[in-house]
Model the fold of this input.
Amino acid sequence: MSERWPDQSAKLDEPEAVEVAEADEEELASDEVAEEEELPQLRAPDEQHASGELEIPDDVNVIEGEPDGTRRGVAIVASRFNGEITNKLLGSALAALDEAGVRREAVTVMPVPGAFELPLAAMALAKTRRFACVVALGCIVRGETPHFDFIASEAASGLQLAALETGVPVAFGVLTVDMVEQAEARISKGAEAVRTALEMADAFAQLRASASR
Done:
């Protein structure tokens, strides 16, 4: 008579199977709790930036500009492309200039075909030395080709180069978005760029004044 080996696939008795299942569930639950504790708490979309102000010790010299445009000439170079958005950016920028005390006759607006032309125009305006600062406004919307990435990159680096080569503050007020609806929610970028440009212009003026003393 041949010897029969025990059936290795035999099921556990029901009580023991229930205990194993409950133990597995408890282990999974504890693992999930541990994973939740380890994951960082994500910020809400409107809280993506860290809060707080820069704190500078009282025993050092500070040169800090104010977004005050009194007696300053300001140039704005604006892209005509995506005009529905750039018109609103320009309106936001002009309102910020009014608030800062910049007279309308001290403001020069230079329209250009698109965002790619912004750096060249900003460079030309800065080199005239007629303006304390230049504000670049435009909107680039992502399409189905890599064109977006090239234009956005060249606009950003070109505007920075214009500022570095001339020493005139050039503020980046160019929106780079995936869809027009995102641009609509960021129209205030025009005003932000104006305040940045005026602050930097004032800081540079203070720096020149302190160096000449």
